[in-house]
Design brief:
It is a single chain. By secondary structure, this protein is α+β, with helices and mostly antiparallel strands. The protein contains 11 helices and 8 strands. The chain is 58% helix and 14% strand. It has a 6-stranded antiparallel sheet with strand order 1-6-2-3-4-5. Helix 6 (144-152) packs across helix 7. The radius of gyration is 24 Å and the shape is elongated.
């Protein structure tokens, strides 16, 4: 009986953490993101003013744009755009919608499944695609698997390492290794990783293009194809340039 109560308590704690992870002040919403008001932590005249604007529990709030200096910010409430100072807005707690993250992560999952589960002439699409990208990766001290991984992970950079392991092991789904020794065996012994490979992977990770949600946010803020393109490809070009230089210098040492 006691064990059952402990298990139920653990499940309740997890649900509570997940629930609270989506409860944020409206100041933490991204442009275009929305949430439902669950709590207003102000009192007195400020609370009365917010309620007169239509801000009550359950109302949907959408973040539209920020001011030139970041304050005030504009929100859409009951079909009307209102401006709120950060001092006021941070007291309004909303339940953030998570569909945006799901929307951008879904394509990456679909591509991973297709690459891992479709074979051509006995070879997986993962192996074929990484083989095609291998010359590009070798130029900067990496390989085709790393290049493929970063392309797949544009919607969500968090999946880089699991996807990389999946590709190296030629598996059909993402997985994790239990120990560092297993990871070393896979990367160093089986696939020839060196110190320069590790250094350039870190450099490429720091410098490469932003993820898809950041790219979309840049577009929404600037409404400019030029600036969105530059913000995407300048970091990527810098990542290739720096890793290329580091790799070429390492060959001279």
């Amino acid at each position: 009986m006691y064990r059952r109560l402990v298990e139920m308590s653990a499940v309740a704690d997890i649900k509570h953490e997940i629930h609270n992870a989506n409860l944020v002040p409206i100041t933490e919403l991204r442009i275009g993101e929305s949430g439902d008001v669950v709590q207003i932590n102000t009192k007195g005249l400020m609370r009365q003013r917010l309620m007169e604007m239509g801000l009550t529990t359950g109302v949907k709030v959408k973040f539209l744009r920020r001011g030139a200096l970041g304050d005030p910010k504009s929100y859409l409430i009951r079909g009307t755009m209102i401006a709120l100072r950060n001092e006021e807005a941070r007291e309004i707690i909303v339940r953030r919608k998570i569909w945006r993250a799901v929307f951008w992560a879904a394509p990456a999952g679909a591509v991973i499944w297709l690459l891992g589960n479709i074979d051509l002439n006995g070879e997986s699409l993962t192996a074929i695609t990484s083989g095609f990208l291998d010359p590009l990766g070798r130029m900067i001290g990496l390989d085709g698997v790393v290049m493929l991984t970063y392309i797949i992970a544009i919607p969500a950079n968090e999946i880089v390492i699991p996807t990389m392991i999946m590709a190296y092991m030629n598996e059909s789904a993402m997985l994790e290794l239990a120990t560092l020794d297993q990871l070393r065996e896979l990367l160093v012994v089986e696939h020839g990783w060196t110190l320069i490979t590790g250094i350039n992977l870190m450099l490429f990770s720091l410098l490469h293009n932003p993820c898809s949600t950041t790219i979309v946010t840049i577009w929404k803020e600037t409404r400019s194809v030029k600036w969105t393109t530059l913000a995407t490809f300048i970091p990527l070009s810098l990542a290739f340039l720096i890793t290329f230089i580091v790799y070429q210098l390492s060959r001279l040492i």
